[in-house]
What we know:
Elements: E1 4-14, E2 19-30, E3 35-39, H1 46-54, E4 61-70, E5 73-74, H2 80-86, E6 91-94, H3 98-101, H4 108-120, H5 124-137, H6 143-146, H7 156-168, E7 174-178, H8 186-203, E8 206-211, H9 214-220, E9 223-228, E10 231-237, H10 238-243, H11 248-255, H12 258-264, H13 296-300, E11 306-309, E12 312-314, H14 337-352, E13 356-371, E14 377-393, E15 397-401, H15 408-416, E16 423-428, E17 431-432, H16 438-446, E18 448-451, H17 465-475, H18 481-494, H19 511-523, E19 529-533, H20 541-558, E20 561-566, H21 569-575, E21 578-583, E22 586-592, H22 593-598, H23 603-611, H24 617-622, H25 653-657, E23 663-664, E24 671-672
Parallel strand pairs: 3-8, 3-9, 6-7, 7-8, 15-20, 15-21, 18-19, 19-20
Antiparallel strand pairs: 1-2, 1-4, 4-5, 9-10, 10-12, 11-12, 13-14, 13-16, 16-17, 21-22, 22-24, 23-24
Helix pairs in contact: 4-5, 4-7, 5-7, 7-8, 12-21, 17-18, 19-20
Amino acid sequence: MALLEVIGLRTEIRLKRSVVHALDGIDLSVDAGETLGIVGESGCGKTMTAMSIMQLLPNGGNVVGGEIRLDGRDLLSLSAQEMDSVRGNDIGMIFQDPTTSLNPTMTIGRQISESVRIHRGASKKEAHERAVEALSLVGMPSPAQRALVYPHELSGGMRQRAMIAMALANEPKLLIADEPTTALDVTIQKQILELIDNLKQQLGMAVILVTHDLGVIAGRADKIAVMYAGKVVETTSTRALFANPRHPYTEALFQSLPERSAESGDRLYSIPGLPPDLTKPPTGCRFAARCRYAVDDCRTNEPPLAGTDEQHRFACFLPVGAPVYRTEAEPVAAPTADAVVTERIRESRDRTQAETLLRIEGLVKDYPVTAGLVLRRKVGAVSAVADVSLSVHQGETVGLVGESGCGKTTVGKLIVGLEKPTGGSLLFQGRDLAQAPRTERRRLRRDVQLMFQDSYAAMNPRMLVRSVMREPLDIHRVDSPAERDRRIREIFDLVGLPLSALERYPHEFSGGQRQRVGLARALALRPKLIVADEPVSALDVSIQSQVLNLMRDLQSELGLSYLFISHDLSVIRYLSDRIGVMYLGKLVEIGPAESVYSNPVHHYTRGLLDTIPVADPAVEAAKSSQGIAGELPSAIDPPSGCRFRTRCPAAQEICAQVEPKLTAYGPDNHLAACHLPLRPAAAASEEVQPALV
């Protein structure tokens, strides 16, 4: 018998004027020591399924049908007090955002020990010892000291470890992880996922892993349930699903992955439309309105969750037979990987021969560290950006990648003028953005705009989107009021938003729509360069593909240049002509996107690539578990010589004594700064001048 059985689960959320049918007949099971992955777009019911199992539903939420059995015990028949004894004891949960889930007024150790005292009846001393033990179990450095600190004193990865320690303190039978790595770098993500895997084996737990990241699912889950609009539309083993998805929705999710299109050179597939409104669920198949294969029968009759055998079930009248894009046209042979790489490098070379739009030379940004409440003495400096040089050409996309804290976003802020550089120069069309007279600097700033990571936080929630869009035009006194309105309408048409959206507030949009508004606002002043700071990091793969395709289309149509900042190398590879890799304020490698991705030189770049979750179970199984070891060093006191040496598997004495210079590795201006590179330098290579990067 399965440890957890969910049978015909139905959950509703009662609003003032309607009822959301959040879950409609969910069937799931997971055995002890097994990982079940639940995947799908936002709003499909993944988190609602987890919250229904935990009985932590929002106001108005109720389970109205079905069964939830844990080790044979019916959870829905338990009283509130009895369910309190199950949560945190038999079932542990890792929430998506540890910052909001941890109590900021309590130390980490006290929060963990509180659960132990409630469920185990332990003394204060015993509970604290168990908290330290749990922190040690999840690999927290110096667990006894970390137990005494508050959540804000920990990094994002450490906060997530603390959240896992809290969930595991009472050794639960079932662990539910709801998007546990969404906001984390790929290096920290790998550490957290491997930690959950190791703890599952060590404690014999069952795990439910909720995520929209197919790469995460590929390497961690034993079986998968694909959800759409409150229903399970396909379920089978992980290997069977990735080898042969049968439901068109599953197939579409795979084809929306940037790595699939980057390998083939094709445009990203984008699922049209949006999931249905679950206050009025459609009749028939709920995916029919967005399905490219749908017929009349799909829109009138609901397909059952069935299949050729019990091991692979899917709810579709017209199942697809293989994970490839099918059309009525004759199939065209896909280009070989080598041909795609060669063509992408050639296109990149063409763009780098265009006019140089932005040239950064020796850019430095230090933030002072002060002490004292009154005198505020300077006691040190944070080296956020240290002697970075690169260029962006007309019509080119340069991707900037690296872990949080490496300086990517700081470079972006310096370019758009949100921060002032400590040293170096920012030349835009030959004029220094930092040193130009104020009037000229203001004019130049119109040509350089920022696309924020969190588009909702970047907008005034009390302003209509029309006012949000008009604000930059009004500030710069662009044209007449009537002309400004006309320009706004044109831009909304470009980004695929209806004009009626101008009369709505930011909270009335979905995440993907808000990111389109953010892009539209960046385009309002008709810039030549857009600095895009993690613009798709929080989006589902389907919405992500829409935004990425839109950015490429607008680049072609308007001649835009992008500096695209991200920690996701798959996204960077798909969109970029060249990739720059940053580590602790330094540019350690830069070159054509395909060259950097397929044949990296620096050990840090190789580590990032090995850490990326790939939507292929075979590839994930073959990966080394090492990844990039250790934590990012402090930028207040960075390591001498090569800053990566403290985490580099190949580091030697020279790495601590001499700082490596950017050197050419190949004919395509592929540069890296490493004493012990993964491949030899180009013949007759010379030290590269910053202006040529």
